[in-house]
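U., I forgot to send this yesterday:
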Amino acid sequence: MLSTLTKPIACWQQEYNTGNSQVDGQHQQLFEIVNALHDAVVARQNIYTIQELLEALANHTIEHFQTEEALMMAVNYPDYDRHKHTHDYLLSKVDRLLLKFRDRNTEAVTTELTQFLTEWLTHHIKGEDQKMIQFFQNQ
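Result:
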């Protein structure tokens, strides 16, 4: 578990629980990484720390999306294409960010980014992921 120095920007709430322990655990890890990234940005930590956190975020996001997509495919989830499209959108945004950062464009990582990630995660979990898990439970 990552510790935070500032007040967490991404606060896990019980309403985000989907009932799937693997998905919920991965969501909570994403929240922890976003909070650690936010701390690093606020504290103006060195670029290597921020890059490490961005790469952890990208890797964990890919792993999480693969988990969800495999679950959806296993039950022929009818909204698979739309849900995957939302995953692809975030991954392309994170990929572009990593490229900018690797080119030493450190201004690309701001508290606006961590706010966007927090909002995207909570909206996605409360919308797409809740619908997906509800479909699984009704099977």
